[in-house]
């Protein structure tokens, strides 16, 4: 079967409960130090959408990269204990920054550290779902991250992309937004191919589409487009559209909510 994609974006539906996943490449510079302007812009947009009456959930990577920058060390991709140590240092810094910035907009946040095992266990998932539902009812903004200090499988797997899709599903979100260092999903890696083209809409993930996602992740992130594609596929099977946007331009989320043509939207078969 050939890849299904179209050059004409589709307007998104009305969204009330929105999960935004932000990766390390958006939150930190290659040095591992915080991208202050970037995180301030993201917080401002998220807080403003919360003010408008929407329920916002933020799935945030960055603990490992920020911890690395704070400790001033270089990471080996196979050095899991050092990554765990960086996560332990960086998570405190990350949540401190979020709390300070959201507080300036009169919003409370809640730190929620998850592992894949928690989400896949039916009883434990019900407990965390109840807790998150209560936080949303209290108008708190949950900040979800993988518990990288103990979840070594996640450290080896990705950059919170899978967790964001799973969270969107069990929270029955209306939309998953994945912020990355690109304008959307391309036919090939744009940094390597000047002829790479943005695909505005994807309705089916085929072998051809998968081959387009085969590039490696960045220096700090652990996911790349492969895991973002998997997240979009998982969310789509449960009726949730996914949009990939440029995290350097969080104001694009306003355009998306307003139905404008930005990024790449995954409207897959099975969407409700």
Question: Top keywords for this entry?
Answer:
nine-stranded mixed β-sheet; alpha/beta; 272 residues; 9 strands; single chain; globular
Structure description:
The chain contains 11 helices and 9 strands. It is of the alpha/beta class and 272 residues long. The protein has a 9-stranded mixed β-sheet, with helices on both faces. Residues 1-12 and 216-221 have low confidence and may be disordered.
Q: Major sheet, described briefly?
A: 9 strands, mixed
The best one-word shape is globular
The quaternary organization reads as: single chain
H/E order of the elements? EEHHEHHEHHEHHEEHHEHE
Low-confidence stretches: 1-12, 216-221
What proportion strand? 15-25%
Class per helix and strand makeup: alpha/beta
Q: Counting H and I runs of at least 4 residues, what is the number of helices?
A: 11
User: Averaging pLDDT over every residue, what do you get?
Assistant: 86
Helix content: 40-55%
Terminal CA distance reads 23 Å
Strand order of the largest sheet: 1-7-9-8-6-2-3-5-4
Over the alpha carbons, how many angstroms does the gyration radius reach? 17 Å
Count the strands? Answer: 9
């Amino acid at each position: 079967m050939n890849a299904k994609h179209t050059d004409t974006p589709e307007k998104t539906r009305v969204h009330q409960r929105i999960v935004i996943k932000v990766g390390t490449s958006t939150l930190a510079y290659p040095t591992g130090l915080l991208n202050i302007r970037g995180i301030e812009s993201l917080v401002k947009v998220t807080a403003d959408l919360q003010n408008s009456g929407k329920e916002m959930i933020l799935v945030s990577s960055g603990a490992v990269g920020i911890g690395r920058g704070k400790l001033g060390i270089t990471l080996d991709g196979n050095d899991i204990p050092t990554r765990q140590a960086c996560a332990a240092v960086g998570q405190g810094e990350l949540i401190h920054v979020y709390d300070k910035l959201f507080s300036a907009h009169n919003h409370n946040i809640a730190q929620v550290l998850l592992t894949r095992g928690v989400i896949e266990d039916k009883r434990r998932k019900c407990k965390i779902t109840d807790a998150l539902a209560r936080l949303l009812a209290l108008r708190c903004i949950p900040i979800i991250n993988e518990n990288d200090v103990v979840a070594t499988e996640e450290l080896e797997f990705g950059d919170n992309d899978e967790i964001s899709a799973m969270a969107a599903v069990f929270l029955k979100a209306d939309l998953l937004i994945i912020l990355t260092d690109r304008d959307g999903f391309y036919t090939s890696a744009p940094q390597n191919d000047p002829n790479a083209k943005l695909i505005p809409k994807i309705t089916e993930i085929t072998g051809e589409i998968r081959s387009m996602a085969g590039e490696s992740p960045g220096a700090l992130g652990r996911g790349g487009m492969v895991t973002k594609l998997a997240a979009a596929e998982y969310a789509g099977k449960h009726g949730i559209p996914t949009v990939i946007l440029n995290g350097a331009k969080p104001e694009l989320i306003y355009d998306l909510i307003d139905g404008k043509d930005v990024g790449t939207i995954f409207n897959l078969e099975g969407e409700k």
